[in-house]
Amino acid sequence: MVSIEDYGNFETAWCPGCGNFGILKALKQALVNLGRSPHEVLIASGIGQSSKLPHYLKCNTFNGLHGRSLPPATGAKVANHELTVIAVTGDGDCYGEGGNHFLHTVRRNPDITMIVHDNQIYGLTKGQASPTSEVGMRTKIQAHGVFNMPLNPLSLAISMDCSFVSRGYAGNIPHLAKLIEKGIQHKGLSLVDVLQPCVSFNKLNTFKWYSERVYEMEDPGYELNDRVRAFEKSLEWGDRIPLGVFYVNEKPSFEEHLDVLATGPLYRNAAKTDAVNELIDGFV
Ligand SMILES: Cc1ncc(C[n+]2csc(CCOP(=O)(O)OP(=O)(O)O)c2C)c(N)n1
Ligand code: SF4
Ligand SMILES: [Mg+2]
């Protein structure tokens, strides 16, 4: 039987009190609840405080370039679709630098769970505004306040028909663990955007600020495949901020479109080089 201890217990470089700890705990809990052993799991990340998370888990990991958690995650899933593949990323990493990859991964729909540590700030580089920072937020760089409109990740994902769209909160670990579990169980790309307080650089969206606003949606009040109603719900932000699953659309995953995977994972199939050799010989 898998236990939390199987995923290790590491010293971290995160600030004491950071919301990242809640996400790490919820992810371990979700993997254990689903009975996934460390060797069955791959976590791919980019660059950021959030992207350090794989360093603190004993399982297969890949820590790549800024904004690039999704391409290696997709590649790994195609090479071995029996793996549980999770992309861990930040609001800057995923919605800024990696925004293009986000859009096209939604279109591709690989069976990957994306966990976005959305602290509405660039934490690692010491507190510049990110794509999700609120208008008016002052930082050392945005000394007169942010004036760019924040990106709404849920609305964007729903508008593009992302097959699973949800929001969790790093201060509600049991709820977040359940959400991650649902994301992993869903076949296709699942987005879990996590509101994550950065206690060092985001003095606006604090644990107190979130705790006064977030609420769990037991039942969103519409069928989860109703894209228009889900989009409308995703616009709710302010005095009340909904948490939970906003949208689900079951559709074929990227891997299901690839006939070559029908006989099993690529890594198990012996490479067939005859046709390639014949082609190369044709140029000699
Ligand atoms: C191509 C590139 N541009 C910029 C950087 C510098 N950089 C590293 S992390 C980061 C922002 C991280 O913000 P986020 O993804 O929100 O992660 P957080 O640290 O907040 O968890 C930036 C701009 C980089 N490493 N590579
Ligand atoms: S800078 Fe912010 S996001 Fe980074 S570890 Fe510290 S509190 Fe967490
Ligand atoms: Mg961030």
Which features would summarize this protein structure in a list?
single chain, alpha/beta, Rossmann fold, eight-stranded mixed β-sheet, binds thiamine diphosphate, binds iron/sulfur cluster, binds magnesium ion
Write the layout of secondary structure elements.
Blueprint: H1 20-33, E1 41-45, E2 60-63, H2 70-79, E3 84-90, H3 91-97, H4 99-108, E4 112-118, H5 153-159, E5 164-169, H6 173-185, E6 190-195, H7 207-211, E7 214-216, H8 227-234, E8 241-248, H9 274-281
Parallel strand pairs: 1-2, 1-3, 3-4, 4-6, 5-6, 7-8
Antiparallel strand pairs: 5-8
Helix pairs in contact: 1-6, 3-4, 5-8
This protein binds thiamine diphosphate, iron/sulfur cluster and magnesium ion.
Mean pLDDT: 97
**Termini gap:** 57 Å
**What is the CATH T-level topology?**
Rossmann fold
The arrangement of helices and strands along the chain is HEEHEHHEHEHEHEHEH
Ligand kinds: thiamine diphosphate, iron/sulfur cluster, magnesium ion
**CATH C-level:** Alpha Beta
- What is the radius of gyration computed over CA atoms, rounded to a whole number of angstroms? 20 Å
Mind describing the biggest β-sheet? 8 strands, mixed
CATH superfamily: Thiamin diphosphate (ThDP)-binding fold, Pyr/PP domains
Q: Helical amount among residues, as a percent range?
A: 25-40%
Q: What is the strand tally?
A: 8
Strand fraction band?
15-25%
Please identify the structural class as seen in this structure.
alpha/beta
For the biggest β-sheet, the strand order reads 2-1-3-4-6-5-8-7
Uncertain runs: none
Count of discrete alpha- or pi-helical segments spanning 4 or more residues: 9
Shape: globular
